[in-house]
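Journal club prep — side note

Before the paper discussion, L.F. wants everyone to see what a predicted structure for a comparable chain looks like in token form. Sequence:
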Amino acid sequence: MARRGTRLRTAGKALVALALGAGVLWWLLPRTSGVSWSAAAHLIGGIAPHRLAGLTALWACGLLVHSFVLTGALPGLSRRRALTLSLTGSAVSNVAPMGGALGVALNCSMARTWRFRDRSFAAYLVVTNAWDVLAKLALPLVALVGLLAAGGLPTRGLRAGALAASLLLLVLVAAGVTALRSDRVATAVARFVTAAVRRAMPRSGAERGDRLAAALLQTRLRIRGVVSRTWPQLTLGMAGYLTLLAALLWSCLHAAGAPVPVYAVLAGLAVERLLSLTPVTPGGTGLAEAGTAGTLVALGASPLPVVAGVLLYRAFTFVLEIPVGGLWLGLWLLVRARAAGTTGTPPRSALRLPA
């Protein structure tokens, strides 16, 4: 009974979060773009079915390429299981603010059923998140270079701001790489963590801080071992994934009748990737769409087809992941239940998620 109540509370929170995201999107996008929902819906509804099929195939290719990042971060992980982690984790994360923790809990339970150790999964989380953050920092840099090369920033002030932003992004990327590679930096971070824990907990902080620092250094060694072997696969996989996301956004915009140049697509994608991290609504719903459309309109595109194209793009990269990931999770649970019935061994719970 208690577990049922926990599941009902979790489902209720998910519904409230989805309603909040939908409300922000419904209110914010027309006010920032000047485009009505009826006009955008009419334009999307007129897109030919074969073009939608092509966009779906492009979205699926992006997921497949991204799975190379996951298999590189967790040696021994198969392609099918990588797709399982990706789709089910995204489905859970997309239905709640700060839903990433729920997705991680689900993926960790899955990894345990596949006999991966928690230490290996912890390294997998750090590696995948590190490459994701580095990609989100590098993408705006690429977009800024494209804008400068194409003359998309006409004034001296805009060019100076773009140059300063580029230098800042380079510094952040370099700092992330250095923290991963340098023993001296890693030791300094561990000492800082130990000191912070001691100040926060004067009585037991010394022992806990030492244990935490040791765990951080041990995890970093495991991460270095993984990255030293698979960094080309991780980097190429992430670069290919971002390239396919840009191709999907460009294709959605063209399907809606917005011929946007490549440098503008990169700028819009960079904004969308960053705003999708906003924890206020699931996946930054509302803010990501408004920010992406606003960026593209500011770079000279027509508002109506841009809004329709951005909504279509987000339908693939955010909305579609929920039912597809939910169905994938249901099939995974069904296969596990049948396997347990065949062997006569009751399956360990894989879905003990936090309330």
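L.F.'s comment for the group: The CA atoms of residues 69 and 237 lie 5 Å apart. Keep this in mind when we get to the figures.
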